[in-house]
Amino acid sequence: MGKKYEIALSYAHKDQKVADILGKKLEMAFADGFFMDGLRPEELASAEVFREKLKDIFQRSDYAVILYSKNYSEGDFTSVEREQILEKEQTAQKSHCFIINIDDCRTIDEQMGGLTYIRLDINDMARNPDASGAAEQEIDWKKVSEKIDGIVQNSIKKTIMLHTVEKKKDEPAYLLRVQTLCPIGNQFQWDRDYDWNILGKAYIVEADGRCLKEGMLWPSFWQYIDFEFEWIKGNLRAMPHVKRWIHLNCHLSVAYKLGQVYGDLRQASGNRNLILESSNRDQNIKFVFQPTIPEEKVEDFCVEYAGNCEESADIACIISIKPNEQGNVLETVRHFLDQNGKKCAKICLFHKKMVLEDADTLECMAAYLREKMMACRTGTNCTIHLFPDTAAPLMFVLGARSVFPGTVQLYEYIPRADTYMESLTNA
Q1: Which of 5, 18, 71, 298 is the least crowded, having the fewest Cβ atoms under 10 Å away?
Q2: Residues 6 or more apart from 381 whose CB is under 8 A from it?
Q3: pLDDT (tens digit, 9 = 90+) per residue, 384-420?
Q4: Measured distance CA(385)–CA(373) in Å, rounded
Q5: pTM
Q6: Angle at Cα 352 formed by Cα 341 and Cα 253, nearest 5°?
Q7: pLDDT tens per residue, range 347-363
């Protein structure tokens, strides 16, 4: 028995150019859970053996995409794939097949009528439509790519997520992985133990693992994550008894923003039905939140230092709460401020070597940080430049607690360069 895929693409090789664009989008979403036949019959040792392999793949894949066109029925293997897809659909309670019609052909098999149908007429995306009605027009492939990206994100992914959430209604927890960090090099793998990933692979330089790709802006990066997270959370509201188990393998700025928008633990008890987990180099701990709110008692350990400009209204806050000592974070921040022309009246260093062991500790620590940062502000025009190097769950809870009257500018630490990069704000 061969490998079981999450989703498989069926297409005619005459439509290879569109299939390649669609394949890249699906691979970005499903990684090694995606199958696409990249071979032609003459390149196969045995076409019959390959037919049997295809039968198994398309019968056992969770979902299928048919790239339908006038060429589809002429494909070398499309009839084999189509037969398996339709056979599986006959026993499925809900459609697990998506038909993307790429040239507005009007002869779709009646058997395919009940499947999820999406119209993508590439002829509507000609770069310079010819008023004379010429048959051959130059296609705007960038526009085609953008349209396909929308189909993958807003139709295919969301249908699959909805199916996944519905399956969880009788289970105690819904697991969600927020993964925006990529392992360095070409060893990137999805974590298959989780139902879905909000993934930053499309935005992150894989050779570095955390820096944004050239031309990509942090607000656009966050907009993508926020949009996906809200969609999932919206479908979980009908199941308040289901715990939200959020695994944070992400930038600390992203964890902070997620907490700010979705993690208000002081709201109704249903919002405390939460488990946070992190995977980073320092610790991998599960934080289970309780219905009661813990007492906020943390010994003061903030140390204030002079900044680089007494006239500035801004302050820099460094959060370095973790079990291991790594470099001189104060000097790293000072150097960054000077190199990038950031003026701050003072620097507040929250430095403590400790293991964050439970949710109560996270909440108490976040409450302390918030109150102390408020007390350190220089006035109503003060911007807080926040430099974190700690556990993602702490930043999530701090974001949930931190309603500041003013701007909080977040920064991300870059270990390989021992410096920071400007990222998101609390706006």
Answers
A1: 298
A2: 313, 406
A3: 999 999 999 999 999 988 777 789 999 999 888 889 9
A4: 11
A5: 0.81
A6: 50
A7: 999 999 998 989 999 99
What is the dihedral sign for C-alpha 25, 21, 24, 16? positive
User: At a CB cut-off of 8 Å and minimum separation 6, what does 405 contact?
Assistant: 380
Instruction: Locate 323 and state its tokens.
Output: 């079990």
Looking from the CA of 174 toward its CB, the CA atoms found within 13 Å total: 28
Q: Are the C-beta atoms of residues 209 and 183 closer than 8 Å to each other?
A: yes
Position 384 scores a pLDDT of 96
**Partners of residue 34 on adjacent β-strands:** 7
Closest to 372 (Cα-Cα) out of 301, 270, 279: 301
Angle at 404 (CA atoms; ends 217, 256), nearest 5 degrees: 45
Cα–Cα–Cα angle for 178, 181, 182, rounded to 5 degrees: 120
Provide the pairing of β-strand 315-322 with 384-388: parallel
pLDDT tens per residue across span 394-404: 999 999 887 77
Alpha-carbon distances, residue 400 vs 246, 267, 308, 362, 397 (angstroms): 14, 10, 30, 11, 5
In Å, how far are 308, 335, 337, 356 from 341, measured between CA atoms? 10, 10, 6, 34
Q: What is the pLDDT of residue 161?
A: 83
d(CA 255, CA 235) in angstroms, rounded, equals 21
Task: Identify the H or E element spanning 173.
Answer: strand 173-179
